Amino acid sequence: MELWIGSINLGFLFAFMAIGTFITYKLYSFPDITIDGTFTTGAAVASILIVDGWNPFLVLPVAFLVGSLAGFITGFIHTRFKIEGLLAGILVMTGLYSVNLHIMGKSNIPLISNRTVFSILSNLNPGLNAELWTAMALALVMIIVWVLISLFLKTDFGLTMRTTGNNPVMIAAHGVSVDRYKIFGISLANGLVGVSGALVAQYQGFADIGMGIGSIIFSLASVIIGEAVFRSRSMFVMVLGVVAGSVIFRIAVALALHIGMNPNDLKILTALFVLLTIIASHAYGKGREGPIFNLIQSNKKLSRWLLFIGLLSGALYILFLSVAPAKTEDEKPRIGLLLANQSSLMTNTRNGFYDEMKKLGYRNGDNCRIIELNAEGDIPTNRTMVDKLMTEKVDILVSVSTASTQAAIAKVRDIPVVFATVANPFTIQAGVSDSNHLPNVTGVYGMSPIRELLKIYTRMFPGKHTIGTIYDPAYLNTKVNMTEFVTALSFFPQLTMKEVAVAGTSEVQQAAQSLAAKKIDAFILINDLTILNSLESVVKISRQAKIPIFSNDAERLQDGVLLVYGYEYYVSGMQAAHLVDRILKGENPADIPFEKFKLITFGVNYDVADQLGIRFPDTIRHVASATFIHGKLIKRPLVLPPENHGNGDREMVLSDSASSFSKGKK
Amino acid sequence: MIRIVGVNKKFNSGSLDEVYALREINLEIREHEFVTVIGTNGSGKSTLLNVIAGAIFPDSGSIEIGGKTMTRKRDYQRARYVSRVFQNPFMGTAPDMTIAENLLMAWFRGKKRYPVISLNGKQKSFFRDQLSQLDMQLENRLDTVMKTLSGGQRQAVTLLMAVLKTPDVLLLDEHTAALDPKTAAQVIRLTQKFVTGHKLTALMVTHSMKQAIELGTRTLMMHHGRIIDDICEEERQKLTTDDFLNKFEDIRKQEKLTPSLIETLKNQYV
Questions:
Q1: ipTM confidence score
Q2: What are A's interface residues with B at a Cβ cutoff of 8 A?
Q3: How far apart are CA B87 and CA B107, in angstroms?
Q4: Most distant CA pair in chain B, distance
Q5: What is the CATH number of domain B2-91+168-239?
């Protein structure tokens, strides 16, 4: 039930965006890509204002205004400089990325503990299912929006807008400034998209810099579905079709995810769907020749029937799914495991979790059932996945990564949530301290130990040094990590830092080059996924310029890094397994404090040291838990210390033996 | 009503394809005059109309309409005074809108459009009366989408739209050229009816010598961007279509440059 009503609600919220696309695409015949940016802008503005204490309803008109300003710019450069609408949209969308990041100040703003439109709404709930209550309220709002938009498009002004798109030459001959009406239409459309973003952010409980990606295709799909289902010339029916199309699209997405489709494949499927429908609709139009068009023309009736049958069977299937009793075949505990993407961070955590569960005596399928889902890097999908796990009636939910945890704690109140591989649970408002947190939430977290890494560095290379770092401000935890970095630096006055920000992996090599040109002595890398994903670019420059790399990511030792000091996410998974065990044995998550990582990996790479002409002291072999030598990785087995041993701290050992590094030829 | 002084217009200026569309045009058209314009291909007839409508700005010279300087006013800013019918019957109407909606757009020509709904029963019955003038049984098809109409019907509706709100100047750019002879004749009859009925000042470009003589009160002949002849009403009555043809033939001979000769020269010197 949750999953389906949840997707209806999302459909309603995205309908604002679909109406925007309806205006640009159906009335002005060009798909406005600006909305990929505007959607995030609306969410960003709304979140920042809500965090600032604004009334969550009042932020909606502000999101509208800011959205329409973005649309105005697209419209202006499109009409004034005669730049094609598509290109104008791409230009503004690209620019908006920076603007959005500036508005938000970081890549993600949580709203879980803030007053939102939906929290106010749920306070008024007379006792219905929460999603159902939201759906009823939203349905009422949608009816109002539907009537207002349809009526507006029937007014003299709205008619002129439509004519402007339909025949610009004719309407100019009748005294209408085509440019002005176009700018107005694009602004209105983007204003609606801004509202959509503001609402979705409040609904899912956070704004994220990447939440708008792909909006235009999803939005086009909604418009096209609506048009196919509601074939009419009446404005009322057409706008209703757009709203319905948005809802149908979201339900179709939920259905695809429910039957286990990879969310990444969803994008190409949607793209294909839009392509095919556009080809088909061209075929319906007159004067098109060619085998495909002829085929569609001759099967016009058939294809409409197929569409109808498809929709009907989809609806029946959903009905069946929601009516069918939930699988409660046995008393085995059901554990939901939610991963955000396919990166090594996630899979290592996952492996640690599975292995340790086995050690604790849980055999999947035998005496417990683990239902694993992956959001495949798509942030909004995390929420759908949480809904799906709720529909699966899991007893406990394990969320790996900040994004998944954010989606889980925003939604789940009545079952325990155990998070793992989260840098800082406090920034996403899972709690205010280790022991004072949301009653159903506990987990494993840890900031990268940057201060310790710097300490090792200064022991190795005493004296004044310039270090360099690269970071991507759009990556989720980077702002926190960088603040931590700067704080840590204040303890080492002998170090000067040069930093370069990048936008995406493709800029990393240039950034490393520019740092090398500034004669830095070492790269100190924080755990920034963008940089770690393009570590090879930094390694290349490191070899050329003979600059060693120090990293907080314990898992990249063999990839050309001189020294690592940090957490292995495998450990995070292991610890999460123990927390799950404790909860299943009857402990209340409210009484379990958040845990830090209990094991730290200190790794050194002898091969890289050779290449760079650096000699490690012999004592380091005793401290290091991992060494890479002659192309082989040797690691100590990862065993968790007994409970209540405190958070693993190898620093004491380290400070004595790591004091006699030397640089120079062997 | 229209005063054009020293207007020049060059296309593709500075390139090999440079074309002088209008050269030193001086023209005065009085109120209620119905002027027909004929000329060879590329003689600048359509450019003249476009310059008056504001779709094209002249390189030099000035344009006055109804005593107001319009030289730098855009087409939509002149629409209050000037209305147009194009050669292409698809250009004058919005294909996906209904007849009534199209007429409403014309009814608001040159006026501000507000977010209120004016297309009510009263407005529709007014449009119905107007449509009945066309004699095409369109008065009962107000809610029909424009694109389902034939080319002739659309051109007739375009014509009605152009005169619905009486304009100071009506510009007709070969508006029957794309129609079959029967429909063309029908549209020409309507044109005459509207122009005389509303006492309009009109400028009509045509390819048909017959139309040029039979219609209107004055005829302009254009060639190579110049007005080479300006024939007033009395003079016109004596003319036949053959006279026109001979006139054009004379010009060709005067120029002594056949198209093939020009081609040879081009190849040698360019």
A1: 0.86
A2: 151-152, 154-160, 162-163, 166-167, 169-178, 233
A3: 21
A4: 69
A5: 3.40.50.300
